[in-house]
Amino acid sequence: MGMQTFRVLRPVQRRNGRSHERLLGLRRLDFLPERHQRSKRLDRLNGSEIRYLAFQIFIGTDDPGIPFDTVVHYTAKDKVEAVVQDILSTIGARGQNLTRLAFMVGPISPDLTDEEAVQTIDDAFDIAVNNDIAVGFHLDDSMFWSRRADLMSNVDNFERVDFDGALSTGLKLDWAHPPAKMCLNAPEIRSETTRRARDVIGATIAGHVAALVAAGKGDLFAGVIAGWETHMGQDVATSSRLGFCALHNRGFGPGNPPSDVSGELAATVQEFIDLWASGLAAAGIDPTRIYSHVAFLSKASFDLLAQDPNFPPIDYQTLVDSASSSQRPSVAFGPNHRPGFSTYPDVGVFEQIQEELAAYRKFLAQ
User: Fold this and answer.
1) Quick check: helix, strand or coil at residue 55?
2) What are the structural domains of the chain?
3) Alpha carbon 172 to chain centroid, angstroms
């Protein structure tokens, strides 16, 4: 697949005191050497891959025009299809040759039961076929999970603000109010992630894709985004950095702290992204159709902010790995997916992505 841009169909929100529409500009970034195992997922465009212009439809409430805030629920098929038809009438074209118009359904969140997740996917493929428009899926990998009483009943599944045991009270976001942060490498979370990715979401998508291919309509599958700005983040009550459950599970503690806290937490996030991607791939989804989704404050933006004499004494790497909805961009890369990024209109974002691509290429060439 070629470069995509995903417009989030969500009301105007506030960020830094300014109104704006939330945009997701996800690009397929594909520069791997041929000798690398499974390198096909990031091969350069070869002239035969389809490029998708995909519009995000937010599910989670009875009406896609009304954003969810704390809990994600199933959204009825007819409500989603109405938005799809509005997209079609507004754009006025479905694409031709190697371009396709698409819609993305999400978040398919842990809040949704297995049955609701499957129904959401079934609905979306039916809409795609009936309206001759490509479809993709956007997964919430970890944020909205308060309906999972089984996982919520185990305190080992909750992130912590320190090694002494203080639990997360909620994940800090500027656009919604999710519950406590999930501990990404807790054994039960890892097991459930693999099951959900491979046996539920992945298997359902793969079955529909096989049917599309058999019907000569494989181009109607635009891909799956395995994550929703995946990051470690901050606790909503105190703005304290989260990740001490993950550090504990990596063998650290108050008497044995890591020498590089940010690096260890970034590694945890990267491993969690690939856990999702590997589960989807194991279900039969082509890794070239699986994407990560990471957001980050650019170094150029940080340098501008740091010129303020009241800016706190913090280095860039610590800030980018501990801020709300942010993680260092290198975590977007992995062996079972293509990297994807939010590209908010901040200075230096695309330049930094290109630098990360070059660094990853160099790493793979070693």
Assistant:
1) strand
2) 6-149+185-234+262-365 (3.20.20)
3) 16
Give pLDDT tens digits for 160-213. 999 987 999 999 999 999 999 999 999 999 999 999 999 999 999 999 999 999
Question: Given the structure tokens 């397929």, which residue do they identify?
Answer: 28
Token couple for 170: 């909620």
DSSP letter assigned to residue 240: P
**Whole-structure pTM value:** 0.88
CA 208 to chain centre: 22
Taking CB atoms within 8 Å and a gap of at least 24, the contacts of 83-86 are 83/9, 83/57, 84/57, 84/127, 84/131, 84/133, 85/131
What tokens were used for 366? 């070693």
- Better-scored residue on pLDDT, 79 or 9: 79
Tokens of 113: 């039961």
Q: Is residue 74 over pLDDT 50?
A: yes
Distance of CA 26 to the CA centre of its chain: 10
Across the strands, what pairs with 15?
Answer: 18
Q: Which of 105, 246, 106 is nearest to 189 (CA)?
A: 246
Q: Across the chain, which distance is largest between two alpha carbons, in Å?
A: 62
